[in-house]
Amino acid sequence: GIDFLKDHYTDMTWGRRIAVYLSQFPWYNPRAGASQDEFYSSMNATTRSEEEVLTHLEMPSVKKAWAYFEHVILTRYVVEAHNVDTSTMSFWRRFLYSFKNYEEAFERAQPGEKYLPTKLYDPITTPHMQLGDFGLGFGLYFSTLRAIVYITFVAGVISVFNLYFFASDRYRNEELNTPLLYGSAICTRNEFVPCVDCDCDDFLQAWPGTDRCTVIDKPDIFPQPLVLTMKNRCLERDGVIWKLGMVNLGSMLFMLVSILLLGIYIEDQAVKFDEDEQTAQDYSIVISNPPAKANDPNQWKKYFEKAFPNIRVAAVTCAVNNDLLIRALVERREILRTMELRLKPGTAMDIDNLALMAAKEARARYRFISRIGAWFFPGLPEMLSKLVALNTRIKGLAQLSYPCTNVFVTFEDESDQRRVLQYLSIGSLYIFANSARGLKDRKYLFNDRLVLDVKESVEPNSVRWQNLNTTMSERFDKMILTNIITFFIIIAAGVIVTLADAASTIGAAFSIAGFNLAFPQVAKAITDMEAHPTESQLQTSLYFKIAAFRWVNTAIVITVITPFTKTLDEDGLIPQIYAIFFAEIVTTNVIQLTDIWGHIQRHVIAPRAKTQDTMNLQFQGQAVELAERYTNMTKI
């Protein structure tokens, strides 16, 4: 196979090139120049079992960790004869080439592919239609992003007349403090004028603190108190307002039509991405109403091959209602993994040795503060107690029998899947009534008596097996709880933004940007409390939470707390929106591009890991949530 450690430097990321060079210095890599024997002695084995494990333990290597990162974690494509090598091109040549190779086809490589030559996808020259290699959702996201860029650009061109007019002396006769606000509707041509029917109390009641209404009470000059109100005189010229209105109307109509066409465009892109990528979903179906005891895969295989001659079943998965057992097993595995990473390499993981070590740690907690801290940061005694409870629970759950709830069938040919769906996809009423009248032939009844509920399956990695059989009521109850939590977080953020705005416009803008950046992690933790059977449903729920928070936090709060009379003022709503846009552009993009925590993991923590396994864990890459990316577009 291919030796990943011998990759040419042009095939490496810049991070790997720098790390390989710095790995020879002890200040960067503490094991630089150390031998295997020196590594063994540094581990300080205290028992025979630890010594036996350490003899098979290889010294951690920064070079191996980076090779793992680029060949297993990052997505690569198989280099074929028609693929052009762009690694030696300059940036400008790669940019020009990206316009010529839009039809170049790539085949995504399997993680860790070591028999075929592979390369990393180039961020500049990768054709748009090949973005589906990262998943259908990612391909559609970039299609949507590209369409939004074109739509907003054309809408901006339509609004050029308005921008030109607002920046001219015909609209405003004073210079603004911020040059980037030229072309905005900020009006500085204001003056107080008499208003016979106005009452300043009404102004103060509607917009507390406004200074746009005043009363002159001089009986020697005016028989009655004179009410003066601030009036904008920026649009008093004849023939201007209707032109501005028509431009705004045209831009709005263009946006509405574009959004409608965007839906058609995305559907077309989904078909193209699906045709370009062959996945298990194209060959699979799911049966949602199998008999409770029909958990034999051979029984389903015989049914389909008998009912549909000439089709071949490749695999059958019978899912049973054992969600509690799966959750317990997953939690047990996570606890064992956490304990393994905390303990010294070579430590025996049998229950007796773990109990001894937990007892020693518990006895060492002689301070009250340490015991309190264990409630928030569980140590070995707490994890062992949970592990013992989980072992007992798993033993009990494993003795139960579980009914079959879903059956996933994968065929050898895509046409077989389409054929089965064509004959077995019928109306819900027929399925609910178990009526064979919706079927073209009674031979399609399972066991000659059951009408099957058959649909196209989701991707295997989209199924959340631990929540596959949760009931609608359980999902609904958890979603109510998480939505209530989200609601109160939105209220709290709104209060903080209001207080920050009272102190400083810039402070409010960066508070909004900070909340928008931090909330997705909070929303993910909240959404993980819900019980969704598929990842798509989980992402949908996450999207609505993040979108609601960002819409309220970015647009609604700042609009509500700004008096309507300050909409066009130089210190009013428009400068605040500008400050928010600026803060969003700076904070979001800088943090995502710099990936500070990722660099700390790979360049600081990883070289000091005790084993290759723990070192590789620092090279997992930055998690990307499509729900968050979509809200980055919609919040503006």
Can you describe this structure?
The protein contains 23 helices and ten strands. The chain is an alpha+beta fold and 636 residues long. The strands form three sheets. The protein has a four-stranded antiparallel sheet with strand order 8-9-7-10, covered by helices on one side. Strands 2-1-3 form a three-stranded antiparallel sheet, with no helix packed on it. Strands 4-6-5 form a three-stranded antiparallel sheet, with no helix packed on it. Helix 11 runs antiparallel to helix 14, helix 19 runs antiparallel to helix 20 and helix 19 (535-561) packs parallel to helix 23. The longest helix has 36 residues, at 241-276. The two termini are 49 Å apart.
Q: Give the low-confidence spans.
A: none
Quote the average pLDDT: 85
Distance between the termini: 49 Å
Order the strands across the largest sheet as they lie in space: 8-9-7-10
Radius of gyration: 32 Å
Structural class: alpha+beta
Counting DSSP E segments of at least 2 residues, the number of strands comes to 10
Helix content: 40-55%
Question: How many helical stretches?
Answer: 23
For the biggest sheet, the summary is: 4 strands, antiparallel
Topology (SSEs and partners):
Elements lengths: L13 H9 L13 H8 L4 H8 L6 H12 L2 E3 L12 H7 L9 E2 L9 E3 L15 H23 L1 H8 L22 E5 L5 H7 L6 E4 L9 E7 L8 H36 L7 E4 L9 H11 L5 E8 L2 H20 L8 H14 L3 H9 L3 H19 L5 E8 L2 H11 L3 H6 L20 E3 L15 H32 L1 H23 L7 H27 L11 H22 L1 H10 L6 H5 L9 H9 L2
Antiparallel strand pairs: 1-2, 1-3, 4-6, 5-6, 7-9, 7-10, 8-9
Helix pairs in contact: 6-9, 6-23, 11-14, 12-14, 17-18, 17-19, 18-19, 18-20, 19-20, 19-23
